[in-house]
Specification:
There is one protein chain. With 240 residues, the protein is α/β, with parallel strands linked by helices. 24% of the residues lie in helices and 32% in strands. The two termini are 17 Å apart.
Length: 240
Amino acid sequence: MKISAVQLQSVTGDITSNLAKHLEFIKVAVAQSADLVFFPELSLIGYEPKLGQLLATEITDSRLDVLQHYSDILNIIIGVGLPIPVKSKVQIGMVWFTPERPRCSYAKQQLHVDELPFFVAGDVQLILETSTHKLAPAICYESLQLNHANNASNLGANIYLASVAKPVGGMTNAQLHYPAIARKHNMYAIVSNSVGPCDNFISVGQSAAWNNQGELILKMDSESEGLLIVDTISGKASIN
């Protein structure tokens, strides 16, 4: 399976511009024969918690139809970040598009204390299943909590997909944590981080992949946009 983790700088609060940017990255992923492409935390609005309530979007929103269309015609699984309304509250979500299937969502289950004024947590772990893999999405803070990966592994996941928005300190911790859970659970760990201004910090990229032995396959730099393509059969990766 080929998995593409996108590293990008979102345009703050501009779903239309960000959607267009996502589509361009999806085309590049498909050109590299990727089977799945996923984006950083809240990628369609940028990591801006204060905008979550204003920009919360139902997964059935017609603006997202083009992503389902791309998934169907290009035969690729797509995961994008978006605040999702739930009753009168908002969750930090990801919307997943699978070819010829109904779109579905995953909501961050463990929130950082700074997020509590703006969001509520989800309570169900999504597992994406293909003919060869079970993939567990994780969103930023929770992906650095051991119990999240433990639960994903108990559900059969052999690939851990972390969508994050992390500054330099967070990525320093991440580069110790992700290889440890990869070794412990015999799973690939792949992280997609944003670059540039986010909320009150600078996100520093360094999107990366570790194999199921916890060995670093490849890491991107701290500033460039691009795609990290990981081949789980060969164990190799490339940057585009």
